[in-house]
Amino acid sequence: MYCRAGFSLAAASLSALLATAAARTVPDDGGLTGTTIRIGVESAVGSLSLDGENLGFRLAFEEANARGGVHGRRFVWTERRRASPSPADVLSVARQMIDDDRVFALVNFSGPAIGDIVAYARSRRVPVMFPHTALVSSEGERYLFTSFPRFEGEAEAMFRYLVEDRGLHRLAIAHDPNAYGQTFRDALRQHAGRFGYAVVAEVPIAARMPADVSAEFTRIADSTPDAVVMALYPEQAQALMAARARAGWQGRMVSAGPLTDEASLTVPGGSADGTLGFCHYPDPEQSRVPGVARYRAALSRFYPDRRFDRYTLYGYTFGRLVVDGVERAGRELTRERFIDAMEGVQNWDAGGVLPNVTFSAKNHHAQRAGFICEMRGGRLTAITDWISP
After folding, report:
1. Which of 75, 171, 306, 329 is surrounded by the fewest CB atoms within 10 Å?
2. Pairing status of strand 198-204 against strand 128-129
């Protein structure tokens, strides 16, 4: 009996040790039930871009659910609202989704907090899918998939174009003082000597939703620029375009890629025609490519009162890519199988919304190309082919 008791105690101890080791090495596949897959999506915060992106992701998930879900599971999503745009508050939302809501994956997120969000998600082995920012690289990351062209390459291509194709040699910049705005400001400084232009003004706009930036625009106009680069958020850009209209200034405006959308640049009483930008996606209202037509049909079905814009088009297209990864992973879904399935994507057809997407274990970046566009008749019109900076 003594031997049996000793054996039982030893076996129990060994089982406990093995369970502990397994808990440390096997990823926690939270967010899954037999019938649902839970995704972390931020609640609306009154931001044109962020709210549109997140609605686009939900749209892709709703479309999948309307078809019966994926392998017997329907998408559900946890929504949490950030208390403020501060990086600490945004990180707090992501951590709550991971730890409290036990989501399968996070989608979207953006801004200066993204580096910390990715690091925290990595420590929990939770995928972060297609943040709407180019401030973070997916190189060497297993749990991160990124979306559009890096800001540094976009800036270089755009500044070269302004000088060599448009003959603009006096450039000013209005920028958010965070990492996004500073990336474009620093790139403008960096390439001045190489491309032969002068940086005549650098004006930060700190308020995320400013009522009036007339003073800031006056500083810019007094520097007599040939063009003004905007590395801003939509509400900041709208305020700047309104100040431009009030001042009657007719110089060239230039939009950074994430900002380049008709809704962000058009204000009552002022024409945005002539504004140049680096577009990531085709015209959401008028493009006839299949991927945009599918987007319009889905948005009209599920959100008939919502206007078409590039922010919802972005979320919808990359949301479809998430759905595709879940389908590829099969019924025995885990986070690791999902990532493996995403790494197997080859020439995924976005229907012309962006160039075909290919991933691998060493490449988690979806889109390397955009195109230069110009506002004509109130619509952003492509004036180049796809450019890979």
Report:
1. 306
2. unpaired
